[in-house]
Amino acid sequence: MADYEFLTEQTVADYIRSHPDLAARIDPDQLVGIREVGDGNLNLVFLTTDASGRGMCLKQALPYVRMVGEGWPMTPDRARHEVDSLRAHHALTPELLPEVFAYDPDRFIIAMEDLSDHVVWRADLINGGRSDGAAAAMGRYVGSVAFGTSAFAMEREELAAAVGAALNPQLCTITEDLVFTEPVAGSDRNAWLEANGPDVAAFQADAAMKQAMGEAKWAFMTKAEALLHGDLHTGSVMVRRPDGTTVCDSVKAFDSEFAFYGPVAFDLGALFANYVIAAARAYALGEDDRARWCLALVPQTWDAFEAEFRRRWPSRRDPRVWDDDFLAGLLATWRSEAWLFAAAKMSRRIIGAAKTRDIESLPPNLREGAARGVLRVARTLVLERHADSAPARLVELAEAALVGARTS
I need a surface site. Which of 48, 183, 243, 321 has the fewest CB within 10 A? Predict the structure, then answer.
């Protein structure tokens, strides 16, 4: 299937040695650590360290979905989309993205900043960590990208070229199927606990849910508002906290191979959904205070997003028609759409393929209630999003649904 060579721990040094720009950053003859750490669904990821303590990450796209194998082909050109989006986003918020050192288009290898002194945010949450500041950082990230890669900031021809270069149909199709269609319409890839069978049946029989997912899929496919991350969740964010503290001194988004021009609220909804899922785990474990802390991440992200977007708003290209009333309407639309996309992302993680460890690592008796609660939140959000889409209202609705559904 592949017509290019895959990296291995044994060939990493030779690869670095053959690229002088990389060998200038890390000594291939003095490597003291080479680890393959890819735990996602798609790629090989190698972390390397030399005797001087300099590090580098090498990420290689495989021509298939790693969690399935060669039976599910996947374009390795997704690595180019990741590089292009990382560079575009890094130019706007360099402190919130890893630096890309080089890209090898022949072998689909990205050389980038080593983040081994960080941990994956999802893992930190599962382990009980309080990564204060991460939710706000991600709000600032989405806000900067929403403005800086859109018609508000870019000249028309530049924008058209950017939209064309970011076309990513194969990975977008994955999202369209796995996130919007299959959880509500059914698929052989779906799976759930037997005890949650009635919950899934009710979800899939819910006419309002099916209509809402149709609306979400249509918006995802047609609203080319900004260059999205495309898969922004707690598993695609790295955090770092000094020992003994709860406040992050570094937060980095990564894994943006699903990047494309789409609806701004999609990235927001993905984050909201994962905060609810983290809260569902905490409630299931009887950690109510921690669960409320997880839910409070929703307004933290939204408030930081809105503040960043408003900060950039005075520099918009055409204030003659994009006035403050227009801004108010735009923000209201994004708030409501974020609820819609959050509902899609929640239900996908419970019913569809590619679950989250937050829920899946719970004992079955507790997982049952956590999964039920997440589905109830999803169904509630699609009904309530037009009435009041304030972040505080989402927190209130989610808390009631999750507490009411938990099992022991």
Answer: 243
C-beta separation of 79 from 108 below 8 A:
yes
Query: For the domain bounded by 119-405, which CATH number is listed?
Result: 3.90.1200.10
Digit-coded pLDDT (tens) for 42-91: 789 999 999 999 999 999 999 887 656 566 788 899 999 999 999 999 99
Torsional sign, CA 8, 14, 19, 24:
positive
pLDDT tens digits along 275-327: 999 999 999 999 999 999 999 999 999 999 999 999 999 999 999 999 999 99
